[in-house]
Protein backbone atom coordinates (compact mmCIF):
# COMPACT_ATOMS: atom_id res chain seq x y z
CA UNK A 1 0.00 0.00 0.00
CA UNK A 2 2.83 2.39 0.83
CA UNK A 3 4.43 1.74 -2.56
CA UNK A 4 1.12 2.33 -4.32
CA UNK A 5 0.51 5.57 -2.45
CA UNK A 6 4.01 6.82 -3.25
CA UNK A 7 3.97 5.83 -6.91
CA UNK A 8 0.39 6.67 -7.84
CA UNK A 9 -0.88 9.28 -5.37
CA UNK A 10 2.04 11.16 -3.80
CA UNK A 11 -0.27 11.85 -0.88
CA UNK A 12 -3.83 11.31 0.31
CA UNK A 13 -5.56 14.56 -0.64
CA UNK A 14 -5.40 17.21 -3.33
CA UNK A 15 -7.27 20.33 -4.35
CA UNK A 16 -9.88 19.38 -6.91
CA UNK A 17 -8.40 21.50 -9.73
CA UNK A 18 -4.72 20.53 -9.22
CA UNK A 19 -4.85 17.78 -11.85
CA UNK A 20 -5.34 20.51 -14.45
CA UNK A 21 -1.81 21.73 -13.88
CA UNK A 22 0.07 24.16 -11.67
CA UNK A 23 -1.44 27.10 -13.55
CA UNK A 24 -4.99 26.15 -12.54
CA UNK A 25 -6.69 28.95 -10.66
CA UNK A 26 -8.45 28.19 -7.38
CA UNK A 27 -11.97 29.47 -6.99
CA UNK A 28 -14.80 29.31 -4.48
CA UNK A 29 -15.92 26.13 -6.23
CA UNK A 30 -12.57 24.40 -5.62
CA UNK A 31 -12.54 21.72 -2.94
CA UNK A 32 -10.30 19.13 -1.35
CA UNK A 33 -10.78 15.56 -2.52
CA UNK A 34 -9.02 12.20 -2.55
CA UNK A 35 -6.05 11.94 -4.91
CA UNK A 36 -7.10 8.43 -5.92
CA UNK A 37 -9.57 5.75 -4.93
CA UNK A 38 -6.60 3.81 -3.49
CA UNK A 39 -6.10 6.54 -0.88
CA UNK A 40 -9.82 6.75 -0.14
CA UNK A 41 -10.24 3.00 0.33
CA UNK A 42 -7.10 2.79 2.47
CA UNK A 43 -8.17 5.49 4.93
CA UNK A 44 -11.75 4.25 5.08
CA UNK A 45 -10.79 0.64 5.74
CA UNK A 46 -11.96 -0.49 9.18
CA UNK A 47 -8.47 -1.13 10.56
CA UNK A 48 -7.02 2.23 9.52
CA UNK A 49 -10.14 4.18 10.48
CA UNK A 50 -10.07 2.66 13.97
CA UNK A 51 -6.47 3.86 14.30
CA UNK A 52 -7.58 7.37 13.28
CA UNK A 53 -10.40 7.36 15.84
CA UNK A 54 -8.18 6.02 18.63
CA UNK A 55 -5.71 8.86 18.05
CA UNK A 56 -8.30 11.63 17.87
CA UNK A 57 -10.36 10.68 20.90
CA UNK A 58 -13.21 9.61 18.61
CA UNK A 59 -14.03 13.29 18.08
CA UNK A 60 -15.15 14.36 14.63
CA UNK A 61 -13.24 17.30 13.21
CA UNK A 62 -15.46 20.37 13.47
CA UNK A 63 -14.09 23.08 11.16
CA UNK A 64 -16.38 25.80 12.50
CA UNK A 65 -15.24 25.23 16.07
CA UNK A 66 -11.63 25.30 14.88
CA UNK A 67 -12.22 28.51 12.95
CA UNK A 68 -13.93 30.06 15.98
CA UNK A 69 -11.12 29.10 18.36
CA UNK A 70 -8.54 30.22 15.82
CA UNK A 71 -10.11 33.66 15.50
CA UNK A 72 -10.35 33.95 19.27
CA UNK A 73 -6.68 33.02 19.52
CA UNK A 74 -5.80 35.77 17.05
CA UNK A 75 -7.92 38.29 18.93
CA UNK A 76 -6.24 37.37 22.23
CA UNK A 77 -2.61 37.18 21.15
CA UNK A 78 -1.90 38.97 17.88
CA UNK A 79 -0.69 42.55 18.07
CA UNK A 80 -2.47 44.81 15.62
CA UNK A 81 -4.29 48.03 14.90
CA UNK A 82 -7.75 48.85 16.21
CA UNK A 83 -9.10 47.89 12.80
CA UNK A 84 -7.39 44.47 12.98
CA UNK A 85 -8.67 43.80 16.49
CA UNK A 86 -12.17 44.81 15.48
CA UNK A 87 -12.03 42.45 12.50
CA UNK A 88 -10.97 39.54 14.74
CA UNK A 89 -13.73 40.35 17.24
CA UNK A 90 -16.35 40.49 14.48
CA UNK A 91 -15.12 37.14 13.11
CA UNK A 92 -15.52 35.58 16.56
CA UNK A 93 -19.12 36.79 16.67
CA UNK A 94 -19.72 35.43 13.17
CA UNK A 95 -18.51 31.93 14.05
CA UNK A 96 -20.36 31.93 17.36
CA UNK A 97 -23.58 32.67 15.48
CA UNK A 98 -22.86 29.96 12.92
CA UNK A 99 -22.19 27.45 15.69
CA UNK A 100 -25.39 28.38 17.49
CA UNK A 101 -27.40 28.04 14.28
CA UNK A 102 -25.95 24.60 13.52
CA UNK A 103 -25.88 23.15 17.04
CA UNK A 104 -28.97 24.95 18.39
CA UNK A 105 -26.93 25.71 21.52
CA UNK A 106 -25.35 29.04 22.36
CA UNK A 107 -21.54 28.72 22.85
CA UNK A 108 -21.61 30.46 26.23
CA UNK A 109 -18.04 29.68 27.33
CA UNK A 110 -16.66 30.84 24.00
CA UNK A 111 -18.55 34.15 24.20
CA UNK A 112 -17.57 34.60 27.86
CA UNK A 113 -13.91 34.30 26.90
CA UNK A 114 -14.47 36.69 24.01
CA UNK A 115 -16.03 39.16 26.44
CA UNK A 116 -13.12 38.87 28.88
CA UNK A 117 -10.67 39.58 26.08
CA UNK A 118 -12.76 42.46 24.74
CA UNK A 119 -12.51 44.07 28.18
CA UNK A 120 -8.79 44.49 27.41
CA UNK A 121 -9.39 45.77 23.87
CA UNK A 122 -12.61 47.66 24.63
CA UNK A 123 -12.14 50.03 21.67
CA UNK A 124 -13.60 47.33 19.43
CA UNK A 125 -17.06 48.11 20.77
CA UNK A 126 -16.84 51.73 19.69
CA UNK A 127 -15.71 50.68 16.21
CA UNK A 128 -18.82 48.55 15.71
CA UNK A 129 -21.47 50.87 17.10
CA UNK A 130 -23.09 53.37 14.70
CA UNK A 131 -21.71 56.83 15.51
CA UNK A 132 -25.11 58.52 15.53
CA UNK A 133 -26.25 56.45 18.53
CA UNK A 134 -23.83 58.35 20.78
CA UNK A 135 -23.76 55.60 23.41
CA UNK A 136 -21.05 53.65 25.19
CA UNK A 137 -20.83 49.87 25.48
CA UNK A 138 -19.04 49.03 28.72
CA UNK A 139 -18.96 45.23 28.60
CA UNK A 140 -20.01 42.20 26.58
CA UNK A 141 -23.46 42.05 28.19
CA UNK A 142 -24.11 45.58 26.91
CA UNK A 143 -22.99 44.46 23.47
CA UNK A 144 -25.20 41.35 23.57
CA UNK A 145 -28.29 43.36 24.56
CA UNK A 146 -27.68 46.01 21.90
CA UNK A 147 -27.11 43.46 19.12
CA UNK A 148 -29.87 41.06 20.17
CA UNK A 149 -27.72 38.07 21.13
CA UNK A 150 -30.80 36.68 22.81
CA UNK A 151 -29.61 33.15 23.56
CA UNK A 152 -26.51 34.45 25.32
CA UNK A 153 -28.46 36.97 27.41
CA UNK A 154 -31.13 34.40 28.31
CA UNK A 155 -28.57 31.88 29.55
CA UNK A 156 -26.04 34.24 31.08
CA UNK A 157 -28.58 36.60 32.61
CA UNK A 158 -29.72 34.17 35.31
CA UNK A 159 -26.17 34.18 36.75
CA UNK A 160 -25.73 37.96 36.83
CA UNK A 161 -26.59 40.54 39.48
CA UNK A 162 -29.81 42.44 38.85
CA UNK A 163 -27.87 45.71 38.78
CA UNK A 164 -25.88 44.54 35.74
CA UNK A 165 -29.07 43.67 33.88
CA UNK A 166 -30.71 47.00 34.67
CA UNK A 167 -27.61 48.87 33.51
CA UNK A 168 -27.47 46.98 30.20
CA UNK A 169 -31.19 47.45 29.68
CA UNK A 170 -30.54 51.07 28.67
CA UNK A 171 -29.35 49.74 25.29
CA UNK A 172 -32.43 47.62 24.63
CA UNK A 173 -33.91 48.26 21.18
CA UNK A 174 -31.72 51.24 20.28
CA UNK A 175 -30.64 49.93 16.87
CA UNK A 176 -33.02 50.55 13.97
CA UNK A 177 -33.30 48.18 11.04
CA UNK A 178 -30.93 50.10 8.74
CA UNK A 179 -28.23 50.30 11.41
CA UNK A 180 -28.78 46.61 12.08
CA UNK A 181 -28.28 45.67 8.42
CA UNK A 182 -24.97 47.54 8.26
CA UNK A 183 -23.70 45.93 11.48
CA UNK A 184 -24.83 42.40 10.64
CA UNK A 185 -22.99 42.53 7.30
CA UNK A 186 -19.82 43.40 9.15
CA UNK A 187 -20.28 40.34 11.35
CA UNK A 188 -20.81 38.12 8.31
CA UNK A 189 -23.83 36.83 10.19
CA UNK A 190 -25.79 33.83 8.86
CA UNK A 191 -29.05 34.70 7.13
CA UNK A 192 -31.14 33.26 9.95
CA UNK A 193 -29.84 36.01 12.24
CA UNK A 194 -31.37 38.63 9.95
CA UNK A 195 -34.64 36.82 9.30
CA UNK A 196 -36.91 39.14 11.27
CA UNK A 197 -35.23 42.07 12.95
CA UNK A 198 -38.34 43.38 14.71
CA UNK A 199 -39.16 39.95 16.11
CA UNK A 200 -35.61 39.64 17.42
CA UNK A 201 -36.00 42.97 19.20
CA UNK A 202 -39.27 41.84 20.75
CA UNK A 203 -37.72 38.54 21.84
CA UNK A 204 -34.83 40.35 23.51
CA UNK A 205 -37.29 42.58 25.34
CA UNK A 206 -39.23 39.52 26.54
CA UNK A 207 -36.00 37.92 27.76
CA UNK A 208 -34.92 41.03 29.65
CA UNK A 209 -38.38 41.45 31.16
CA UNK A 210 -38.31 37.84 32.33
CA UNK A 211 -34.86 38.18 33.86
CA UNK A 212 -35.68 41.40 35.67
CA UNK A 213 -39.04 40.17 36.91
CA UNK A 214 -37.57 37.07 38.58
CA UNK A 215 -38.37 37.18 42.28
CA UNK A 216 -38.46 40.96 42.28
CA UNK A 217 -40.82 43.82 42.81
CA UNK A 218 -42.45 44.15 39.38
CA UNK A 219 -43.69 47.66 40.06
CA UNK A 220 -40.10 48.72 40.65
CA UNK A 221 -39.11 47.31 37.25
CA UNK A 222 -42.08 49.02 35.59
CA UNK A 223 -40.92 52.35 37.01
CA UNK A 224 -37.43 51.69 35.70
CA UNK A 225 -38.79 50.91 32.21
CA UNK A 226 -40.80 54.13 32.15
CA UNK A 227 -37.74 56.09 33.22
CA UNK A 228 -35.65 54.50 30.45
CA UNK A 229 -38.41 55.21 27.93
CA UNK A 230 -38.45 58.89 28.88
CA UNK A 231 -34.65 59.07 28.53
CA UNK A 232 -34.82 57.70 24.98
CA UNK A 233 -37.42 60.26 23.93
CA UNK A 234 -35.40 63.21 25.23
Describe the structure.
The structure is a single chain. The chain has 234 residues and is mostly helical. The protein folds into two domains: 2-55, no CATH class; 63-233, no CATH class. The chain contains 13 helices and two strands; from the N terminus they run αββαααααααααααα. It has helices at residues 2-9, 37-44, 46-55, 63-77, 82-103, 108-118, 123-128, 140-146, 150-157, 162-168, 177-187, 197-213, 218-233; strands at residues 13-15, 32-34. It has a two-stranded antiparallel ribbon. α4 (63-77) packs parallel to α6 (108-118) and α9 (150-157) packs parallel to α12 (197-213).
Strand and helix map with partners:
Layout: H1 2-9, E1 13-15, E2 32-34, H2 37-44, H3 46-55, H4 63-77, H5 82-103, H6 108-118, H7 123-128, H8 140-146, H9 150-157, H10 162-168, H11 177-187, H12 197-213, H13 218-233
Antiparallel strand pairs: 1-2
Helix pairs in contact: 4-5, 4-6, 5-6, 8-10, 9-12
